[in-house]
Automatic annotation (TrEMBL):
Highest taxon in the source lineage: Bacteria
Gene Ontology CC terms: cell envelope
Chief location category: other
Name of the protein described by the UniProt record: ABC transporter substrate-binding protein
Subcellular location: Cell envelope
Keywords per UniProt: Signal, Transport
Matches recorded under Gene3D superfamilies: Periplasmic binding protein-like II (3.40.190.10)
Any single Pfam family the record assigns to this protein: SBP_bac_8
Lineage: Bacteria, Bacillati, Actinomycetota, Actinomycetes, Streptosporangiales
Family from the record: Belongs to the bacterial solute-binding protein 1 family.
Signal sequence coordinates: 1-20
Length: 444
């Protein structure tokens, strides 16, 4: 009850502040707002409508782009002076934008309006503060990683659903996790990956799908394995001074994962980069299971002719599971012509009025506000989706904060080339040594 009263108080505070102009004015304004996820656009349109109803002087115009087009278009917009007033931002992107002076800090506004940062999931609010102490965002959601599998293919393989909740892995033989992957893999002649005569060069269904090589982030590709093997991205997070991509634990994990490609259990880079995405390939029955982020759950369940279920990420050599703990927030462009309106909108997006009353009930993502997360779990359950494999990471303390670093764009460039080469077997695992040296040289 006490938590409910606190959250309700925050909602009242944020709603009452949305229509207020910090300078005492009350001029009307249209807020240009960009986001990249088409699945989330309807729920934020509802938030925009509610915001306008509470603040008639402000109107929100939403523009949606795909992920790649989003960042390219945003970069061009900053250069040309046509950036949106507010845009959805990512932890790996905002540090560079802040250092370039493209973002409006909201530190004083948060203090002035007494925004209760404790209402959010622990640690999320801290991620949006740069090394100089300036805040650039309020948490709007969080995400973790789990396994999504095709229930029919699991049954055909003779694997029981309860087995999926206790899988283990290790970089030596892959553990029970690799055994399941092998069993779920089927060649064109109907032979499974764990049966004699399996043809790894003519696979009809891969046991485990793969989205990309993961570059330097690997959120849904390899992070759950590397971190459950005791590896960390860098010497500290946020704002590291040295990265650990040459660490033996990272190397042995990636070597194991790429061995699954060689065995025919996981698709090759040629297939991965063919232009057909992981979701569509899974929907076509060519992947029996995938490791995926919580934000895409509803999309998988909407696939026609496919029945899916969730399982937690496997337990690694540390004796624990692992998942990156990532989250989004909204940034205000430094060049906005409507800073008062932009702040009002950002504050509303981060409030229970948007996150709990609207977003949580759509069962698309997990809102950042703690009580809203509970509402989202209920909403997912009402649609027949048990999301505990995602939320258990938060409850069990097996989350690891996504890396927040200077020079991330450069790190991504270096690691994309390196990891693509390793996953394509054009380079061996030791290519990570010079790549890591190049990355650490950025911090000298």
């Amino acid at each position: 009850m006490k938590r409910s009263l606190i959250i309700a108080g925050v909602a009242t505070l944020l709603l009452s502040g949305c229509g207020a102009d910090p300078e005492g004015g009350s001029g009307s304004a249209t807020i240009d707002y960009w986001l990249w996820d088409a699945a989330q656009q309807p729920q934020y349109q509802q938030c925009a409508d509610a915001f306008h109803k509470a603040n008639p002087q402000y109107t929100v115009k939403i523009t949606q782009y795909g992920w790649d087009d989003y960042w390219n278009t945003l970069t061009t917009a900053f250069v040309s002076g046509t950036a949106p007033d507010v845009f959805t931002s990512h932890l790996s992107r905002y540090p560079d934008l802040a250092s370039q002076g493209q973002l409006l800090p909201i530190t004083d506004l948060v203090t002035r309006d007494k925004v209760d940062l404790s209402a959010y999931q622990d640690g999320l609010a801290d991620l949006w503060v740069t090394r100089d102490g300036q805040r650039y965002g309020l948490p709007k959601d969080f995400d973790t990683v789990a396994v999504i599998y095709n229930t029919d293919k699991l049954k055909e393989a003779g694997i029981k659903p309860e087995e999926m909740s206790e899988l283990t892995w290790n970089p030596q033989d892959g553990g029970t996790y690799e055994k399941v992957i092998a069993r779920l893999t089927v060649d064109r002649n109907g032979k499974r990956g764990d049966e004699p005569g399996f043809d790894k060069n003519h696979v009809a269904t891969y046991g485990l799908g793969l989205n990309t090589s993961g570059a330097g982030f690997g959120q849904t590709e390899w992070s759950m394995y590397t971190m459950s093997n005791g590896w960390q991205y860098a010497d500290r997070n946020p704002w590291p001074s040295r990265f650990n991509y040459a660490d033996p634990k990272f190397k042995e994990t990636i070597k194991w994962l790429t061995s699954l490609i060689d065995k025919g259990y996981v698709p090759s880079m040629d297939i991965i980069s063919s232009g057909v995405g992981q979701i569509d390939t899974y929907g076509a029955g060519k992947y029996a299971m995938v490791t995926e982020g919580s934000w895409n759950t509803k999309t998988y369940w909407a696939l026609k002719g496919v029945k899916s279920a969730l399982a937690p990420t496997p337990i690694g050599p540390t004796g624990k599971r692992a998942s990156l703990f990532n989250g989004l927030a909204d940034n205000i462009s430094a060049g906005t012509d409507n800073p008062d309106a932009a702040w009002a909108w950002v504050k509303f997006l981060a409030s229970p009025a948007c996150q709990q009353d609207i977003v949580a009930k759509q069962a698309v993502i997990f809102p950042a506000i703690k009580s809203a997360t509970v509402e989202a779990e209920k909403a997912f359950a009402d649609t027949g989706i048990d999301v505990k494999p995602f939320t258990m990471h938060v409850k069990d303390g097996t989350t690891h904060l996504a890396p927040i670093s200077d020079h991330w764009a450069d790190i991504t460039t270096i690691m994309t080339e390196t990891m693509d080469s390793i996953f394509s077997f054009k380079s061996d695992i030791n290519a990570l040594d010079p790549a890591n040296d190049k990355i650490n040289a950025l911090f000298q």
